[in-house]
Design goal:
Strand order of the largest sheet: 1-2-3-5-4
CATH topology of the largest domain: de novo design (two linked rop proteins)
Low-confidence stretches: none
Structural class: alpha+beta
Largest sheet: 5 strands, mixed, barrel
């Protein structure tokens, strides 16, 4: 989409860093303009008009003025605040950070407007916020993994979770290798490929297709943890870089 001198868009903040004495660089994931780097002038001053709004976990309506290297953020209105329920709970906070960091890396790989990715980020943040009102045991990693699996499928990197990724032999299979494309049979299994429970791959398939389990097995926490490690390894293999927030989640 061609940039206009001044434009408005919906956005979420994925990263910030200080610039000069009072300014801040804001990295925005926007719905119609992809990844945008903008400067918010004077926001580190106490009397800044909209500095407090330019934070992670906020859905924004922003106005920007196009520049050669950096756009200038001239206005920012809060549309929805997701921080309540995220910043108070460590697991929710690290999960939300992983969503934002992964989205930034995926947006760079996609390069350009991607409303599907943007909508998926907003939905994931909304679901993490709503966990504070959920009953029973909570698994924020499931929200992260569903986001990652569906985002990778949108980019064309969807893992094979039933048929063997190498020979297409029908599953279920008990091995997984990111370099081969997901599940692998005993014949195609490369040395060192981790052994996985078939129900773990089934859980990942359900997340990918936004489906629910009919019944929750007794070993569900183990399946959730294993699915998260496989999803993380698959993402980082295809991005060819690590995601720091995903490492923090495992601490």
């Amino acid at each position: 989409m061609a940039r206009r001198p001044s434009y408005r868009d919906h956005a979420v903040v994925v990263r910030t860093y200080d610039f000069g004495e009072a300014d801040r660089i804001i990295v925005l994931l926007t719905r119609a303009h992809g990844l945008v780097r903008g400067v918010a002038k004077g926001v580190r001053r106490a009397k800044s008009r909209f500095g407090s709004r330019l934070q992670p976990f906020v859905l924004l309506d922003v106005q920007l003025y196009s520049g050669r290297n950096l756009d200038t953020i001239t206005a920012a209105d809060t549309l929805e605040f997701f921080g309540a329920g995220i910043i108070e709970v460590w697991e929710n906070y690290t999960s939300a950070c992983a969503v934002l960091e992964s989205a930034e890396k995926l947006a760079v790989a996609h390069y350009g407007e991607d409303p599907t990715l943007f909508d998926a980020v907003v939905q994931a943040l909304r679901e993490l916020q709503e966990l504070k009102d959920s009953e029973g045991e909570q698994y924020p990693t499931l929200i992260v993994d569903r986001f990652l699996l569906q985002a990778m499928a949108h980019e064309g990197w969807s893992p094979s979770l039933f048929n063997c990724a190498a020979c297409n032999n029908p599953g279920p299979h008990r091995s997984f290798h990111p370099g081969h494309g997901g599940a692998v049979c005993g014949t195609c299994r490369p040395p060192g490929s981790p052994r996985v429970h078939p129900e773990t791959l089934h859980l990942m398939w359900l997340l990918l297709h936004d489906s629910e389990l009919d019944t929750v097995p007794e070993n569900f926490p183990t399946l959730v943890a294993e699915a998260h490690q496989l999803t993380r390894s698959y993402l980082q293999w295809h991005l060819e870089r690590s995601i720091a927030s995903l490492k923090v989640m495992d601490q």
